[in-house]
Every structure is written in C-alpha cells, then in structure tokens.
Design goal:
The protein has four helices and six strands. The protein is of the alpha+beta class and about 120 residues long. The longest helix has 14 residues.
C-alpha cells in the first residue's frame, strides 16, 4: 500500500502550528515546537541510532518559512534559526500518526533530565 500523499499544508502562525492533510483523509495539526524537537536533522537525530539529542526550550518557536523539496517534502525554517533536515511527507505523516505517543515521551524525557519547554 503506498504511503499517503499530502493534499494540503497550512501554516497557522498565530497558533504556532502546521496543518497537514493527506489523501488518506487524515489531517494533523502539528505544533511548531513538536516539529522542531522532532526535526529529522542530524543536529536532533544524531548521526546514528541512539544518538538523538533532547532539545529543550522551544515552547515559543514558530515556523518562518516552508520551502518545497521536490516531490519529497518540505524544509521548515524555524524562528530560532534551525533550517536543516527536510521533512519528508512520510516523516510528517508518521509524526502526525504518532503525535500523542511522541509528545508524551518527549515531556517525560525533559522531566527526567531536569529540562523545561520554556527558556528559563
């Protein structure tokens, strides 16, 4: 079965979220903070298994620009200057499907490491 293809992508700057719809009928509202801390970039994911980096202090991050990367996906330029790691359509779909689980794990990891979502 082929992976769902995007049908719509809308940046909601005021609410700091990215809405992505797929031809499967699924529609996800992905907070910019969630996307930033789960960026597919090597800066966040590391260069191999088990090298992921926990990224705190991104509560207020937004997306400044969305740039297409062929038919593959998009490059998201975040307001904190982060602009590496292209988000494939498959990655955005996976982040939408697993949002609740991923977000819970992120919050638990922050707490375990004495880190916070805000820059304090």
């Amino acid at each position: 079965m082929p992976a769902p293809r995007p049908t719509d992508i809308i940046l909601h700057r005021a609410s700091h979220s990215l809405e992505v719809a797929f031809d499967s009928g699924e529609r996800f509202n992905l907070p910019c903070e969630y996307l930033r801390v789960h960026s597919p970039s090597a800066e966040v994911q590391g260069h191999g298994p088990g090298q992921q980096v926990l990224v705190p202090g991104k509560h207020d991050v937004n997306i400044d620009a969305i740039e297409p990367v062929g038919n593959y996906g998009v490059l998201l330029r975040f307001s904190d200057g982060h602009a590496t790691g292209s988000f494939s359509w498959d990655t955005l779909h996976e982040l939408g499907v697993n949002q609740e689980r991923n977000w819970k794990a992120y919050l638990e990891a922050l707490e375990k490491n004495g880190m916070e979502r805000d820059r304090r």
